[in-house]
Structures are given as structure tokens and as C-alpha cells.
Amino acid sequence: MSRVDYFSWPKMSLSVSNLKLDRNNPRIPPNIPTRTTKEILEYLIKNQEVKDIADKIVHKGFIPHEPIYVTKEKDSYVVLEGNRRVSALKCLLDPLLSPSSQHRYFQRLHNLMSGNPIEKIDVIVAPSREEAEDVLFELHTERKKEWSRLQKNAFIARAAVQEGETIEQIAERFNVNVTDIQAAVTEHYLSSYLIELDLPSDIEEKALSEKFHISTLGRIVGNSTFLEFVGMRIEGTTLKTDIPTFKFNSLLKKIVTDIIEKKINSRVLNDKEAISSYIEKISTLLPETGENITPVSFSLYKGNSPPVPTPQPKKTRSKTEMLIPKGKIYETGNIKLDILINEGQKIQAGKYMYSSAFLLRTILEMTILRIFESQGKLEICLNDRQRTHNLSQNIKSLTNRPQWFQNQAHLNDLLSFIAKDSPRWVSLETLNRYVHGEFTIPDKEMLTAIWLIIEPLVLMCNKECN
């Protein structure tokens, strides 16, 4: 492999405001919306110590101890390395970019820097994202602020799949053992597959978090006894097994649950023999029959085609605009839900604001339950006493199942809708506050926007809309 001449990469001084944060930043989990700068900032500020970085910049100065790498994509320079530092600088220049709960914090820091704002910074321009990956890999696997194991796995898997490289090619490029790359890709696929297991919501939440011991899971599934029993491998961009899906899911569900409940860990399974013994033991507990008897064929990346635009409500001949537009008959498979939607088509938009907000929230809650019911997974929405979890928890469980969404744009809209401190003017938090009387009366535009979030979910229910 030829040696890269990094000294030939140009250096430029660019405006902080014009730099674009990386939507594919490995620090950001795949289920977090990253369509806008505010959405990216919201996650980084809450989870990646951006506030501490901003404070140090104000009190100690912006120390160029490590270069900031960018690359030009279309007409913009995208930050590949240094997203946290650039995020801090952006919020120091414009505190309103930060989540609403952090406005005061960044405004205070902004005021301290008002006499000497940092509006431009020096950057190194990489020829392409791919050519910068060697630099990023070295920085975040060898240096003081390493990526987490999940973040590193996501970075490697993306390089393997999106750039069409083999495991061997990536290992050579990053100067890492082939087995380490294979383990990283496998762990990334499995961490994405966990939502297929229909785990209880509390277990699922822990399994999808960065605190989950994915390395323990990786050691188990990499054991020869497991591989021989399951026949698991990755072909192209697809995770496959030889055993039926129901049996693989039961096996993986047991392993994940045991890890979370601390029944197993690296000390208990401290060698190959212990892991093999554990696999042999739990394999005897697997069901003999199940619903899905075909082997697993799970594709993580299904292409990058642009999302289909969200369909707009059909215009009606009625001169009076309704809370829920007329002209459609919704058959969700739940009579009560259908009746409530029909009632919304009789309420004039702009009238009975509180009643309208209550109605839309009820429709949203029932629609979420109906979607899970139509998929045969209603138990995920219920607690041990068969009562429904709160609405935000059930919506979160739905967004954890992107394969149920035919349109990625609808999933992204829903993720933004439930995001805490959402930068959008329409959100679940806002709707809840309206319903509980914590805000002034909701306006017509707000309620209309909420219905546009709900309608695609209604259409996901069992029976299609005529």
C-alpha cells in the first residue's frame, strides 16, 4: 500500500459558522437524528463533553494542539475530525444553536468572549473522506480521547460496507489484525440486530446503550462452539445463519439478557472452555419450534437512495379546514381509533384547541399500540401488570425498529418529534405541556403539524388507507 503524503494536504482558514458538522460522526448512534446542525449539537452537547470544551476555550483559549480535518463535499466543508471542538465554537458564537436547556450556559460564555470571538479557525483539507479515515482511526484508537468500542465498530463497518472493501483490505489499510476487524464488523451487525429480538423494553434500552458490554457478546459469538452451532457469518452486507431465525433469536436473547442481568461476564467466562460450556448449556434450553423457521438474513445497509417526500394531505372541496383533513377513510383495524380519527375530521381547525390537543395525543398513543399489535408485538408496550408504558417510551421502542418504516423520512420526523430539548417547534414535549395546561392555548399551525407527524403512523397500521 502506497504511503500517503499528508504534508501535501492544504491548510486553510475557514469560518466556523460555515463549517458543517459530520452527519456520519461515529460518536453519534445510528438512531439519533442528524439532519440538521441543531440535532447534531443536541446529542454532542449532552453526551460528548462539549460544554467542558467550550469552558476551556473561554478561560484558556483555543489551543491548536490537534489539527481539525475537513473535506469538501458538494459546496461545503464537512468536519471529519474535531466535531466536538467546532461544536463548542459554534455555540460560543451563537448560543441559540444549543438545546434550549443550555442557552443560558452558552450565553454566559458568549458574553465572556464578546470582545474576542473566534470566527475563523485553521483546518487541514483532506482530499476525500476515505483518505482521512487512516488519520481518524489512528487518533481515536490510539490517543487520549478514544472512541468507544461501539463507535469504533461503526466506523470500521461503514468503511467496509459503504466503500466496498474486504475485511483483509481494511486490516491492511489500518494496520490491524484481520481477526480484530472481523470482530468489529460482527459486533456492529449484532448490536444493530438486537432490536429484532423483541426484548422487554427495559432490557432493550440497556442493550442499545453504549454501556452495554458488547465485548462480552463478541467473545461469545466468536467462540468456535457458537459458530459451529449457529453457522453465523457475514456475506457482503448481510448477516446470515444456518439455524432458523426463531432459534437464533432465542439464543441471542438469552445471552444478552444474561449479560445485562450480570449472570455472565468476562470473569465468569474467562476462557474458551468456559464459553463453550455456557453455549452448550443454554443451547439445550432453546425451543424446538417457532414462527420464523427460515435462517437469518439481516441486511444492515439497504442503500442510500433519497427518501420519498412525505405525502401532503389531499385537498378537499370543503371550504372549511378541519383538524384532520376530510377526504380519506382510515381503517386501522381498531374501531375505537377509527372513530376518534373520524371525530377529528369533524372538528374545525382553529377551534376547541385544548380538546383538539387531547384528541391528537390520544390518537397518537392508540396508533402506536395498534402498530405493535399489527406486528404481533403488543407485549413490548405493556408492563408486568399489562398496563401500557408511557407514550414516550413506546414511541422510542417504535423508533428502535427502523425496518417497520417504509419511508426513512417518517422515522427521522418521529425521532425529532420525541427528542428531548428538540430544536423543532413541534415536539412530543410541547404537545404534553399543552395537554397538561403548562403552555398557552395551542395554535392551529401547531396542531396541523402534529397531525402530519401522526398520519404516516396511522398508515402503518394493519389495514391500508383507502
UniProtKB/TrEMBL annotation:
* A Pfam family that the UniProt record links to this protein: LysM
Q: Which domain of life does the protein's organism represent?
A: Bacteria
Q: Which Gene3D superfamilies match?
A: Conserved hypothetical protein from pyrococcus furiosus pfu- 392566-001, ParB domain
Cited InterPro entries: LysM, ParB/Sulfiredoxin_sf
The LysM domain extends over 161-184
Protein name per its UniProtKB record: ParB-like nuclease domain-containing protein
